[in-house]
Structure formats: C-alpha cells, structure tokens
Amino acid sequence: MLIVMRMGATDEEVRGVLARLKEFNLEGHLSPGKERVVIGAVGVIGDPDIRAQMGRMSGVDEVIAISRPYKLTGREFQKEDTVIDVGGVKIGDGTMVVMAGPCSIENEEHMVTTARAVAASGAQILRGGAFKPRTSPYAFRGLGEEGLQHLAAAREATGLPVITEVMEARDVELVARYADILQIGTRNMQNFMLLDEVGLARKPVMLKRGLSATIDEWLLAAEYIMAKGNRDVILCERGIRTFETATRNTLDLSAIPVVKRLSHLPIVSDPAHGTGHWYLVDPMARASMAVGADGLMVEVHPNPDHALSDGPQSLTLENFDSLMRSLERVGEAVGHPLAPQPQLAAVAD
User: Are residues 113 and 27 in the same domain?
Assistant: First the structure.
C-alpha cells in the first residue's frame, strides 16, 4: 500500500500517518519526492478498512494498493531512479560504471598490480574476492581477512572504491570495515539472515541474481535488504542456468530493461560469469551497455592461466584495456557514456 501525501503536507501530518500505520503493525517507509512525500506501508494488512481509514487522515491525497509482491524495490514506490554514490562514483545516473579486478585476491603484490592496471585503463571501482564460495570444498576459497587487507592496500594505492563478497551474517561487520560495497553472491541471493544483516550495515549492497531465480524472486530478495532500512541496493545480472552447455551460464540481457521498467534500483551486468569465456566478455559487455546496464563486473588477472579461480573467464590486463576503449566507442554511439573516475592516487612507475 502506498500513501501519497498532498503537496505541502506538514511534517506533523507525515508523522501522524507513520504513527497510525504503526498502530496497524505496519512499517512506514518514506520516499520524499520533488513535490510530494510517498509512504510505503509494509506488512500484513489484516483489516480491509485500513485503506479507507488512511485516506481520511489529514494531509493524505490518495492511498494506492500495490499488486506486485515487492513494494520498496518497485517503481510504484519510487518513480525516480535510485543513484548511489560510492566514494564519488555514481551508480545509476545514466553513465556506465566498470568494476574490475581479480576473481580471487591471491597476495598483495598481485592485487595492487592489477588495481593499478585497471585504474590506468579507466575502471571506476575495484573488485576482488577474499571469501570465495566454491562448488568443490577442495578449491581455493579465499584468504579471508588477509585478503581484505590486501584489497584495502590496493584501494590506498589507487584511490578506487572496492567491492567484495560477504558470505555469512557473522562476517558482515568484518567485511564492512574494509569494503565500500558489500556483494551478495548468486548462491546467497535467498540467504535471508544474511540479507537482513547487510540491510542493517548501512553500506551499499550489490545483490547478484540467483542461478535459477525469477526476476520477481530477485526483487523480493532485494526487498529484504531495503526493509531493514538500507536503500542503497544494486542488482547484478550474472547469468542463469539453462539447458545450454556452450556457455557457463546464459546471460539474460533482457532482464536489464525488464528490471529498469519494474524497479528504480540500478542494475549491473556480469558478462564473465554470464558466459564463462574471456573471449565472450567484450561482446556481451558492449551489448550490456547498449541495453542500458548501469555497470559491469569484469574479472581481470595479469596471468589468467595461473589464476587460482575463474582463469578461463578472466581478461588479461591488455584485453581489459582494449575492452575499455571499445566501451568508449559504444557509449558514444548509444548515448550511454562511461562514468568518470574518482580522484585517483598517484600511480608509481
């Protein structure tokens, strides 16, 4: 249920509506617009007369029922696109942000070398995994806090904000001390305790689509985060599991314009996990830009043949630089340019 306040409604009237919702055991979420305040009511509406009662309150213009299962993530709740500022990098403002770096952080030298290279090529955000969910328990599963320290060193060396995955609710506080964006991986899209915890963290969260998740399920997972008070949520299309075996997953590019129609949240594309092949990253990245993605997640490694994880889908430093030049041309052609970089640290020779 959405409660649209009249133009010029007072703060007292807004507080009155929030208090009344609380009496009905509903939680009110404010969405201040340019002209009006909209209040999203979240919870189980047991009394069918609630809408009529709320509509009679002072300052209320109209009460709208929402038919979709998600509320806070939907366009009905917020018409304007959400724009998230991460260390001076704006995600969702009509430009394309590139998040680049290795799948797994291997050591400090490796992380800093890669960070400096992607920064020199024009990346806006640095990625790197310290906690790695792997299909096999015997595969490399990350360096943990040591990896987070290497990631922080790379941020210090370049000035790029950093994104990294958090896998368990108990680790959110630790990862949030180092990361500028918390990433929720595909396997954890419906780990509801983890979603609740990052919703309390007050750090931007990137939520990857589950392996076989529908778009409604994905948006409802984002709803968990927003319902805890964290409005800075980024969605990431990283491919879904289909019958096709030529690629690791099937990158669902149609999800990008669909999500933009249904939701105000920014959406990022991950062509590396979406295809599993480095040579498909460039064309699918360009296609993602053309259909309106707000960003890209790209895996980059100085020597992919020796990477501890996801080498086959990682770009070399040279291939990443070529990709960035390609994206510049596509962005100019479709009116969707690359985002400016944040203030960079001095790069040593």
Answer: no
What is the distance between the alpha carbons of residues 175 and 216, in angstroms, rounded to a whole number? 28
Residue 279 vs residues 131, 306, 318, 324: alpha-carbon distances, Å: 26, 17, 13, 14
CA–CA separation, 254 and 316 (whole Å) = 28
Counting Cα atoms < 13 Å in the Cβ hemisphere of 1 gives 26
Residue 342 resides in a domain: no
pLDDT digits (tens, 9 = 90+) for 28-84: 999 888 788 999 888 877 676 888 899 999 999 999 887 788 889 999 889 899 999
In a domain, 72, yes or no: no
Please, what is the Cα angle at 132 between 257 and 128, to 5 degrees? 65
Within 168-213, residue ranges assigned H as helices are 172-178, 192-199
Residue pair 265/236 in contact (Cβ under 8 Å)? The answer is no
Residue 320 near residue 300, CB atoms below 8 Å: yes
Length of the chain equals 349
